[in-house]
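Sequence in, structure out. First:
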Amino acid sequence: MNISITFRQMDATEAVKGYATEKVAKLQKFLKQPLHGQVTLSCQKTIHMAEVDMHAGGEHFHAHEESEDMYASIDKVIDKLERQIRGVHGAHKKKGAERASDRLLPKDEE
């Protein structure tokens, strides 16, 4: 797992860097391949922006989010990425999966 963080137009603090690294690292549990991520954190006046670009094997995920708080921006962008990853990996339905309603229907009644 390789995560690099870039700060633009703001001071680089260990607290924000650690928080972003920890959040992105948690996405690894949804991926089969090791992830390589680029996190860009920037600030323009009162708007804090977080942008994440991730690669895992042949898969690519990208999200951008902004708010008035950097931690909130990081949380929002991680939520977006998690939905993207779950969408890709959740789209494959297991063969032979049965619905709950199939088990609830009664057998032939005589």
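Second:
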Amino acid sequence: MQIDGRNYLLAIDTDISDETDAKHSSLSLDKVIDVMEKSNASTKIIILDACRDNPWERAWSRAASIRGLASVYAPKGTIIGFATSPGELASDGKGRNGTYTEALLQHIDEPDLTIETMFKRVRNTVAAETRGKQTSWEHTSLSGNFFFNISLGKIIKSYPEIAIADELFVVDETKPSHKIIKGLKSHNWYTQNAVLSQLTAASVKKMTDSNLFVLGRNIYQAACGGSNSARIFVLSFMDETSGYPDEKRKALLDGMLFEIFFDPKAKLRSKIKSNLFNELFDLQKYASLKESFEFIAEALIASDGEFYALPGRDHELAVTVGTTKVKDAYRVDAIYVDGINVFRAEDEEWTVGGEEQKVYGRKSAADLKEQLSQELVVPMRSLKLTYTPASAVKGELQVPFGYTVRKP
């Protein structure tokens, strides 16, 4: 609330006996702004959903002052958002949050909006919700652009957006690379196998890196779909690309790696396209391909995805599988990463005879390692598994159906 033309952030134990006590047991908004002004951050953001009347004015024997919060000064590089314009009051809204916060939640994650454009959309939503009774407000002195969410196509500069979000890619059959891409998109194994024979060291030299990136995506897609030629291309990548210029080989591999993690809209997949995940990441052992794995690591960082260990950086992940000896097998009860059991039911327990209970399947340690590799999104070469008891690694494992270690 404001007292004597200044804004104060009240604590739950603010002393409201009189206005002097209230001021000196609250946090001055001016102080917050002063502290932030000294920060080295290029953009400082304050958002206040706290425009209220002073409910103690009568108790303080004061005449009613200006409604809501007072206007403030925004130093260079600062934007301050208010739920209402100066002198207005904010609506409490109909749900868990106030009208202003609900509008923020609706727009703050929209991609590629400058913060000023985002606040304009918030203002429009607030006005519509309150039928024009509330107008959100900003004080700003920003000199550059700030985005809460930038789409991957805007961040990755190596390839154009039509390659990163390849649903936008339009096939032009006058170009040899496009003919191959069209054939790979056919979902017909005979067509897919035939067009890949057109990919030679000589033809690749004339193709753009952008087209090769999309081509790499489609080769991996076709390989996962059962095309034998595409599968051989992935499994024998170094031999298949022998004689390719380094930058052309990189563009193809960049596209393959990107296809594992990102869908045609350049959105992070909820589950990776894992069919040849480990085979492709085995290529990390070649120093000449390092830039491609750096590329995918940077793309995953930009996507704000959550990973146990960032793919592409070749970081090892230590995992312990907790088991209990049951007759001739070992029942998997827990899987620990960084001291936390991450093994959980992905859905409801299976029902047997009308009762919910765990239903188990049998796996070898090698099978379980491959499953964990795909769900943890960590290549097997970087996954270090241990078992308790240690003898379980040599035995048959009972693993409950419907359980996973994927990030929730």
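Remark: Residues 209-225 form the longest helix (17 residues).
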